[in-house]
Amino acid sequence: MSQAAKAPQPAPFTLSPLTPLIGAEITGIDLVKPLDTAALSALRQALLDWKVIFFRDQDITTDQHLAFARLFGELEVHPFAPHKQGYPEVLAITHDRDRPGRENKWHSDVTWRECPSLGSVLRAIEVPEVGGDTLFADMYAAYDGLTEEVKEKIDGAVAIHDFAHFRAAMRARGKSEAEIEEMNRKYPMVEHPVVRTHPETGRKGIYVNVAFTQHIVGLEKAESDALLKHLYAQAAIPEYQCRFRWQKNSIAFWDNRSSQHYAASDYWPATRRMERVTIIGDRPR
């Protein structure tokens, strides 16, 4: 058998799907150690295939967290969220008695950017004894499940995305209108396709979300609102989902181009402390 005809080498880890469509747990790999080319390629393929991959018992440092994420691309600095001291690329996400969880809306990260996220790598530092799971939805399946009539309406359509709730939070913290206008200038509203074609897999997926999408261009408000409500609702269909129960030193790495996620805020007043690193993506097409 020629070299070109040889079968692909098996992945250097074990992959266990959480559901038939989305989510797989990776075992047999230690993220403290450098990844060779074969392992990196297999992880990238697992991410593309399963949209979110999970790791357990990864007692890594912040620098190792950053190094792992950088294997997949350049990292962003979030202009609105709190950062870990000394690490501008690391979002420090802490909820407790005084700061209840608020990420309990289906969304894809930072779609208000011109070039939104490729993916996010979230690490659990401290978790509740029970509660605080994260749910993930397969937006390929969400698109595939639409009626042909709805697909005809949205294929080729574009929608406006905006950081509206961050703007409201700035006002609530007493930021001046001049400061807010400066952020408006840096991050103007952007248009993205309602149906995104994944740049690596070529598959179509719904690319609007309740957190950042404002309206569909060219539609009256009532029609846009009704259509968006229908599209948002697809993420809530259980058959398109997986659910991950966190433990200390668990890691989730999700593809923001093909999935949405929802952090269940059911653990108050317990503490949930996480750190997220986000990989810059490309302009949606």
UniProtKB/TrEMBL annotation:
Organism, as annotated: Parvibaculum lavamentivorans (strain DS-1 / DSM 13023 / NCIMB 13966)
An example Gene Ontology CC term for this record: cytoplasm
TauD/TfdA-like domain span: 16-278
Keyword Metal-binding: yes
GO molecular function: metal ion binding; taurine dioxygenase activity
Record SUPFAM superfamilies: Clavaminate synthase-like (SSF51197)
Record keywords: Dioxygenase, Iron, Metal-binding, Oxidoreductase
Protein name in UniProt: Taurine dioxygenase
UniProt record similarity statement: Belongs to the TfdA dioxygenase family.
Pfam families per record: TauD
